[in-house]
Structure formats: C-alpha cells, structure tokens
Amino acid sequence: MVKFTAEELRRIMDLKHNIRNMSVIAHVDHGKSTLTDSLVAAAGIIAQEVAGDVRMTDTRADEAERGITIKSTGISLYYEMSDEALKSYKGERHGNEYLINLIDSPGHVDFSSEVTAALRITDGALVVVDCIEGVCVQTETVLRQALGERIRPVLTVNKMDRCFLELQVDGEEAYQTFSRVIENANVIMATYEDPLLGDCQVYPEKGTVAFSAGLHGWAFTLTNFAKMYASKFGVDETKMMERLWGENFFDPATKKWTSKNTGSATCKRGFVQFCYEPIKQIIKTCMNDQKDKLWPMLQKLGVVMKSDEKDLMAKPLMKRVMQTWLPASSALLEMMIFHLPSPATAQRYRVENLYEGPLDDVYANAIRNCDPDAPLMLYVSKMIPASDKGRFFALGVFSLER
C-alpha cells in the first residue's frame, strides 16, 4: 500500500469494480479507531511502530480528551493486491489495484446520527467486536442501521491480544468465546435481514470473519492459515478453511481428522491446533525473550526480521513479529475486497435508498448502473452549520461526467 497522486486516483476511480466504499462500525471502545490506525500505517501515512496509539481518524481535541470518536472521519487508501492473493479472489477482476474509501464512525449512542451519515454513503461495513465483551447494545444498533441502509457487513473479532497477554485463555475456551460472539452477531443480522441483500451472516470458514489485535497491528482470517496448511494435508484452501472451524478435530498421533474429540490428549480442534496455539507460542516466546527458540520458528514461517528489529525485547518485539507475520492491513483489506461489494454491484439494490424520484427515470437508471456518462448527481449526506446564522455547508458525494 502506498500514497497516490490525484491522477492515479482518477485512473482507479474509472475502475468502478475496484472501489470499496465502507464504514467501520462498533460498540464504543471496541477498537475501531485503533484498528483503522493499522490500515492507515500500511499506506505509509503514519509509522507502523505507532499504529494503534495515534488514533489518526480522531481529529478533534475533544475526541483525544474523551478517548472516543465523536465525528465520522473518512480516508482513502490505495491497495495493490499480490498475484498470490488474487488467486483466491472469485469476483470480477479488473487488475490488482484497489481504492478503499474508509469512514471511521463513532460507537457512542449519543452520536448515532454520525453513523447514519457514514453508512448512507458507503456500500459495506467492517463490524468490530471485542472478543471478550462480545456483542453489546450499540453493536446491535449499528448493525440494524447498516442493514436498514442495505450495507453488507463483514466482521472482525478484535482485541485478540487480551486472550494471550491479559487473560491467558486456553485454546478451546477461546474458540467457544469467539464462536458465541459470531453466533450472536449472526442472530442480529438474520433478524434485520433485507431480502434484496440476501444472506448477510458471516462465517469464518468462508473468509467473512477476521481475528485482530488492532492495538498491536496484526490480524488474520482462516484464509491465511489455510494457505499455510493446504499443501501439507494435500487438500485445497477451501477444504482446509472448513477444517479450521467448527466440529473438526485433528490428532497428530494418528494423523486423522474427526468430527468429534476422541478424548486423546493430542486430539484438538482444528482452529485451536493450527491457528490459536501457534500464535500463542510465538507471543509467549517473544514476551519471554527466548530468541534462540524464536528465530528458528520464524524461519519456518518465512518471517524475515530486519537487523535493527532483532534487538527489540518483550512487547515491542512481539508487536513487530506479529505485524510482520500477520499484518492487519493485508488480512482486513483483502477480506473487504473479496467480500464487500463494489459501487457497481451495490447500487443495483441501494438505488431506492439513495434516490426519492421515480425508480425508472434516467437518474435512477444512472445510479443503478453506475453510469459514468450520466448527468452530474450530488447526494447530500450531512448539513454542517456555518459560522453565520441560517447557512449550512453541504457534505456529500457526487458522480462525475466524463
């Protein structure tokens, strides 16, 4: 991910299938702004070392003082997907360059109007849920708002670092906790489901759920680990992803997969054995400064550390190792690109949310088809009072004629 010029932006904007307009939504203090920092850092806008601490999208002084987001803030990111990642992409392809227009919205109930304004001008949402606190009241509120606007969600189970550092949760307990979080989110999505959107529920084995630690800048989906293990087990990535979630257990002693725990001490759930415990082992080794064990482990994983990073110790070392091994930017942005709709797809079912005129006139058809040759249209999502009374600044999105 790199910074880009206005000319490059216009070029990418012509590729309407390669644009993702999305919001980050969550209950207050579940880590939206911190997680957004990790994505911004990958663009080179802030240093990776301070990602999670800067809260770049909190631009007001009162936001910094209160430690919460008050106003929605937008930022555009350019992402160039690797050829390796593109092999897993089953959508319509138009090159490997993508523009992600991301809006970080408030989580506090008092600022729900800001969430509505953000959702109205986006097509997808990254729902952030604290892995320990789970789905809270405002999580349901923002999800209901999103589905009411026909916004397709993906989910990230955030603050994973709490499981490893703060609470020392064992693998099976962690799995059951994550599973409940996802199940509770899916209940809400099913409750407010819109027929035009179809099934909006999220599934780790389908790549629509990520697991993240926004504060430390790392994240993964089951896709990451399926790629590591698919060749070892002689199956394709899709099959391996299915084995890494749900009632799938593996016993290294017998080298067999089963749908039930056999009771053997070596038989463990696929997610626990191949995802959770390797991360736990890496983090423990870093925190204990056992570098003689760490370097061979990283070599097996193909993780290369810079010479100056090898002098880091404890938490700074752990943070850097995890960012290098499982960068949040790649996991989250690729999940958004793979599973959130482009404007060309979304406007077919969102046009009646955005346009109050006849749905068969030239303007409605232009919106529905994302027609670049149609008349200029402006959608005002927010009115901001000006300093002189009785006047407002209109904030919105517009289409461009060629």
From TrEMBL:
Q: Which InterPro entries match?
A: G_TR_CS (IPR031157), P-loop_NTPase (IPR027417), Small_GTP-bd (IPR005225), T_Tr_GTP-bd_dom (IPR000795), Transl_B-barrel_sf (IPR009000)
Q: Name one GO cellular component term.
A: ribonucleoprotein complex
Cite the GO molecular-function annotations of the record: GTP binding; GTPase activity; ribosome binding; translation elongation factor activity
Highest taxon of the lineage: Eukaryota
Q: Name one Pfam family in it.
A: GTP_EFTU
Annotated ranges, domain Tr-type G: 17-253
Name the chain's protein: Tr-type G domain-containing protein
Organism (species): Salix viminalis (Common osier)
